[in-house]
Prior knowledge:
The complex is a heterodimer.
Chain A: E1 9-11, H1 16-25, E2 30-33, H2 39-44, E3 52-55, E4 65-67, E5 71-75, H3 80-85, H4 87-92, H5 94-101, H6 106-109, H7 114-120, H8 128-133, E6 137-142, E7 145-150, E8 155-157, E9 160-161, E10 168-175, E11 182-188, E12 199-208, E13 211-220, E14 227-228, H9 230-236, H10 243-256, H11 267-285
Chain B: H1 4-11, E1 30-33, E2 36-39, E3 53-54, H2 67-75, H3 84-97, H4 103-109, H5 121-132
Antiparallel strand pairs in B: 1-2, 1-3
Amino acid sequence: MRSDIAQYDLVAPNSLDAVLQILADSPDHYTPIAGGTELMVALGAGRLQSKKFVSLWNLEELRFIEVTPDAIIIGAGSTFTDIRKHRVIADEFSILAQAASWTGSIANQNRGTLGGNIVNASPAADSPPALLAYDAEITLISTRGARTLPYRDFHLAYKETALEPDELLHSTTILRNYKSYKSYIRKVGPRNAQAISKVAIAALARTKKGLIEDIRIGAASLREYPARLTATERSLTGKAIDPDSIAAARAAILKEARPIDDIRSSAKYRATVAANLLEEFLHTLS
Amino acid sequence: MKRLLDVLREDLHLTGAKEGCGEGECGACAVLINGDLINSCLVPILQAEGTEITTIEGLVIDEKLHPIQQCFLEEGGAQCGICTPGMILATHHLLDKHPQPTLLQIQEGLNGNLCRCTGYMRIFSAVQQAALAGATE
């Protein structure tokens, strides 16, 4: 049943400082809302738990993409359209641009934000596997100050993150040092457009003299949150791509993945497809 | 937290935008906000403050159908009509960005708009005709 909207309050301060002050004054009470592509769905379905919301939509302090010689810094309020349109992201971070292109529809991409995708913490979210492969850092802010942590440490359990109630995700930083890497991203869903992943893998690897020097594998829908598959990465580091190392990597990902059975797919299907996707990537490295 | 869609339909009596799924998947409620295609069922009205909103009613020029509407009519791109306002606004948004879109660009531009009648082929040909007619120029 639809929610009774009279029970819900939304405030829209015109500065980031004002938002942070509201969160500081009554932590636990206010839920930040940006493009609404997640929370407004819950409102419509009558399952929106929070009652008070503070709008982040279009706050200029959060909607920016800054390029420095060493890094790209993407404000949490940047939409997927902003990401797709950005020349440096298209040129240097192609798997993030690809993930943005299959996040919902054009209308959803015009509203959905990278920050929302991260904080919502869906295990099936589209951008996290790419951010994990790039080993992105995230910056959290509050009236107490800012702190930066590796994105791979942000998710703690299903829908549980390192974000404190008075904190906001401010930005995501990716270093510009992946030119020598081969990249891969593939999402498997029920159809091409507007699908929620059954499973998705994003990966980067650098080889030297036929051996894998560095490999990073980010996954959606294989654990209870978006996760780097570090044991699978270790099984491949220093190896040449041959039938033995591919078999060992398949065994490693099957062991490391913890997919579930749900309405979208079965655990067995997800695990098998994950191993196939990984193998598909490995073949491109040899 | 009233939705933009409800303000349009109930308060302003602009009933062109339709409610389909109510969760941002079908595009029947799509409008243009500052020129961007947006699902109005997912916009809290407060976030629409100060913006310029174009609904399907706003495409009509001097009581004449917009060229995109005319192409949908002539090509059989509309049947029951529920998806049509969103389809036409999505087409407008697409042709603004890609005046001569490829079939792939058309498919992507309309991928958030579901139609259960036409099978899409007539819609695609309506968009192609609208592009040939220079509909958004």
